[in-house]
Amino acid sequence: MSTESTVAIVGAGLAGLGAALSLHAQGISSTIYEAATASERFAGAIMLSPNALSILDKLDVYKKVVSSGWEFETVKFVEVDGKVTDQQYLGSKDVFGYKALRIYRNTILKALKDACAERGIAIQYNKKVISIASETASSATIEFADGAQGTHPLILATDGIHSRIRTSLFPQSTPTYTGILVVAGAVPLSALDTSSLPKDLTLNQPIGETPANTQPPFLLAPQNPTATDFLAGTQRRYPEQSREEWARINSDRAFQRNFLLEGVEGRSALMQSAARGIEDESANQAFEDGWSLALVMASEKVTQVWKNGGEEWLKVMEKWEGKRKERVGRLLKETMRMNNARAPKEVRDKLPKEEIWSGDGGVGQGRWIFEPKIEEWVEEITR
Ligand SMILES: Cc1cc2nc3c(=O)[nH]c(=O)nc-3n(C[C@H](O)[C@H](O)[C@H](O)COP(=O)(O)OP(=O)(O)OC[C@H]3O[C@@H](n4cnc5c(N)ncnc54)[C@H](O)[C@@H]3O)c2cc1C
User: Fold this and answer.
1) What keywords does the record list, in alphabetical order (predicted)?
2) Most buried of the four, 125, 189, 230, 245, by CB within 10 Å?
3) Is the CB–ligand 1 distance for residue 66 below 6 Å?
4) Rounded CA gap, 265 and 141, in Å?
5) Range scoring the smallest mean pLDDT among 37-41, 216-220, 248-252
6) Is 118's C-beta closer than 6 angstroms to any atom of ligand 1?
């Protein structure tokens, strides 16, 4: 069994890599343990907004990836006849310093891994953590699937939605399904029959979201710099399934194709191929969490406290978690309002106006999301 002086990070996804780089920026070393192999690839593109992009900029990663993705500022809601009914800001160069960015997850993962390599942050692949074997006030021992163990002063669990560490520490805590299934895939421009698009909706617009009249929405968004590659998809309410059934659906192309095309008559000609992708929208929060935690740990009053562990460290973590939960709670409500805005008209008509996201407040209404003032609240909790 090895005893390390570095923080252990379990999982080399966006959250783990972002946390490792944030800790490094504050002079705190870490080792990352990743269950997958170094060559594993992850599907799909994600949308990163100014709150995440400003952190990636501080980590010296943003400028290396921005030209590989599609930059945009607004989402348009367009009816079948081409009428634009709403426009919402997801970024703004002038107001927040960054446009929003759609980018392939593999591109951003590679850039983060390259940055780790440059800074000497070790990533150990094929290292699946199975549990926390033991804990003392100032360290914890993790157990790997290959039988090895490692002891570190602190363990950060960034092992994704089905976290082994969360299950090991809090068996009663399970992820909650939002009730909305998104099926989307990458489609080349050459596979889109643009003649079936509503008139006035050109594909070189930043992002287009069609329908939402009586039908479920059809989402369309460029995701490479030349706008020759698109996200195309839909979302609507769908009953919760077992983990095994979600896994089956995730590889069932016929199900995905039917889900995509059902109820989107008039849009079906747009799609000649359908792919997949079922998930949430929390990559942006992952970067915020890594950055804020690193700032807390490096602050003058806490720098020794986390190494000592015990009650005092737990109190700091409770404060950090309190701030984080407050923000995540607000963001979840906002996500539901966004989902309601994408619901068919008959659903929206039954909802109070304040439960539906709208662009009426202009660019400034997103300020609390896109400019989170992390440094201020870290200062507040570490004072
Ligand atoms: C198609 C798709 C589109 C999305 N679009 C958006 C979007 O537009 N905006 C947005 O903000 N988010 C989006 N998301 C969600 C976003 O990708 C996730 O929130 C984000 O990837 C979560 O990052 P993570 O690092 O917490 O977890 P993950 O990316 O799941 O990474 C966890 C890592 O831990 C490793 N691991 C798991 N178990 C163990 C173990 N026991 N031991 C060691 N390692 C382990 C895994 O192999 C993995 O590398 C999307 C997701 C998908 C699939």
Assistant:
1) FAD, Flavoprotein, Monooxygenase, Oxidoreductase
2) 230
3) no
4) 56
5) 216-220
6) no
- Give the number of the atom of ligand 1 that is nearest the alpha carbon of residue 130: 41
Domain map of the chain by residue range?
2-175+281-382, 186-270
Ligand 1 atom index nearest CA of 44: 1
- For residue 140 and ligand 1, the question of a CB distance below 6 A is answered with no
Q: Residue 163 corresponds to which tokens in the numbers above?
A: 């976290």
Q: Which helix (H) or strand (E) holds 87?
A: strand 84-89
Answer whether 160 contacts ligand 1 (Cβ < 6 A): yes
Which atom, in ligand 1's list, is nearest to the CA of 277? 1
**Alpha carbon of 253 to those of 12, 50, 237, 250: distances in Å?**
28, 34, 19, 8
How many Å is the maximal CA-CA distance in the chain?
Answer: 66
Cα atoms in the Cβ-side hemisphere of radius 13 Å centred on 204: 1
Measured in Å, residue 161 CA sits from the centre of ligand 1 at: 7
User: pLDDT tens for residues 287-342?
Assistant: 999 999 999 999 999 999 998 888 999 999 999 999 999 998 998 888 888 878 77
Record the pTM.
0.90
Mean pLDDT for the stretch of residues 145-170: 92
